[in-house]
Amino acid sequence: MPVLVITGTGTEVGKTVTTAAVAAAAVAAGRSVAVLKAAQTGVAPDERGDAEEVARLAGDVTTAEVARYPEPLAPATAARRAGRPPVRPQEIAEAAAKLVAEHDLVLVEGAGGLLVRFDEAGGTLADAAELMAAPVLVVASAGLGTLNTTELTARELRTRRLDLLGVVIGSWPAAPDLASRCNVADLPDVAAAPLLGAVPAGAGALTPTDFRAAAPDWLAPRLFGTWDAEGFRGRAAP
User: Could you tell me how far CA 52 lies from the centroid of its own chain?
Assistant: First the structure.
């Protein structure tokens, strides 16, 4: 698995912190890691973007962006409004290939959900994943509504014959409600893919040292961690 594409079921589901957790766990397991942000929106030229936030939390990782745009919009819209060239799926694939040559693992983080448009032709992160022949990790929210958005994302991946590696809950609440606890059992069913972790809510506010020490505990062995899916499911059961 030289390249892993990380997408979300939508915005604000914990995608960047999950990417940081995977990076930290991989580094702890002795892998050399690069993080590629396909399109960074909503940041100024001198402002820290998502890839830099991953590095702050995860430690010794290489970071790169294909492009960045100042307004917090879908990449295609942000590029058009900024009068700048859009990001095309081929450019994402080419940037990842360069990083693969010097790293064991390249994490490609998308913007928003799987089908957010990157260019005027409708190119998406799914198109880039297809060009890279890379598996996709889906980051989902914990509570109400997550089953629908997760299943829609999983169905699109299957339609495109892309490999859905699994699902990670990007922000697991300290006091989960009934819906969140039930979703632990239901998410793997609707995705037809395993649940590969649960990142605690507020994990991004930990010190980098504490984050790196804890990250493997949030992720399954497939993601370089030690998280026990069955044990978690038993504890969460209503």
Answer: 14
Chain-centre distance for alpha carbon 12: 11
Contact 180, 173 (CB under 8 A): yes
Quick check: is 98 catalytic? Answer: no
Across 104-119, b (16+ Cβ under 10 Å) vs e yields ebbbbbbbbbbebbbb
How does pLDDT run across 33-65, given as a tens digit for each residue? 999 999 999 998 889 999 999 999 999 999 999
Residue 173 reports pLDDT greater than 90 = yes
Tokens of 137: 């990790």
- DSSP line for the chain: --EEEEEESSSSSSHHHHHHHHHHHHHHTT--EEEEES-EES--TTS--HHHHHHHHH-SEEEEES-EESSSS-HHHHHHHHT-PPP-HHHHHHHHHHHHTT-SEEEEEEEEETT---STT---HHHHHHHHT--EEEEE-SSTTHHHHHHHHHHHHHHTT--EEEEEEEEE-SS--HHHHHHHHHHHHHHTS-EEEEEETTGGGS-HHHHHHHGGGGB-GGGTS---HHHHHHHH--
Q: Is 12 left (phi over 0), alpha (psi -120 to 50) or beta?
A: left
pLDDT digits (tens, 9 = 90+) for 91-103: 999 999 999 999 9
Burial (0-12, 13-18, 19+ Cβ within 10 Å), 134: buried
Kindly name the residue from 13, 17, 25, 37 that is annotated as catalytic.
37
Tokens in use for 70? 């100042």
